[in-house]
Amino acid sequence: MRVNLEFRGSWATLFGPILLATLLIVITLGIGTPWAQVYIRRKVLSNTYYQGQPLSFDGTGGQAFGIYLTILLLTLVTFGFYAILGFANVRMLKWDAEHTILPNGKRLEYRGTALDLFGQLLLISVLSALTIGIYYFWGYARLRHHIIGNTSVDRRPLQFSGTGGQYLGVALVNLFLTIVTLPMN
Questions:
Q1: pLDDT, tens only, 108-117
Q2: Is the Cβ–Cβ distance between 88 and 74 less than 8 Å?
Q3: pLDDT (tens digit per residue) in 18-68
Q4: How many CB atoms neighbour CB 77 within 10 A?
Q5: Residue ranges per domain, the chain?
Q6: CB atoms < 10 A from the CB of 96, how many?
Q7: pTM of the model
Q8: Terminal Cα-to-Cα distance of the chain (whole angstroms)
Q9: Comparing C-alpha atoms, which of 96, 144, 137, 104 is closest to residue 120?
Q10: 3-state secondary structure at position 2
């Protein structure tokens, strides 16, 4: 059985929370980033539905802060390789998944590995550079497929159905709307 998640919010749903989170980060000189991240995650998941009911998130900013400190320490001790090789990203993906709760009380599980994620990011970077950035949109979709495909509920992997072409289309619409709404001087 396929697990389908649906985001029912809009830009307006997240605009205020993102503005507030950004303000928190700026006022605290970055120290409030974990709390801002958790706040936004809760807003996103409260607008993400599974079988007609919203998801929830029970992670805390204090937990995220502890993970950030651990990642910083491990990155320093390994001369940056902990972050470069994807171990830091996987640690955050696993933490995020284990604190994401479906309406039936089940939690997500991220099962990807750091080296697989590193391989994906390296391939996307190389192909994006070789195509002067054009591949980026397909690379982003590829990365989402990889991350979502390694996330599961009861060992049933989630599926991502977006494409690079769709992402490029959204980016072009956003670019057009930004240009036409810029104030003319």
A1: 999 999 999 9
A2: yes
A3: 999 999 999 999 999 999 999 999 999 999 998 899 999 999 999 999 999
A4: 10
A5: 1-110, 111-185
A6: 20
A7: 0.87
A8: 56
A9: 144
A10: coil
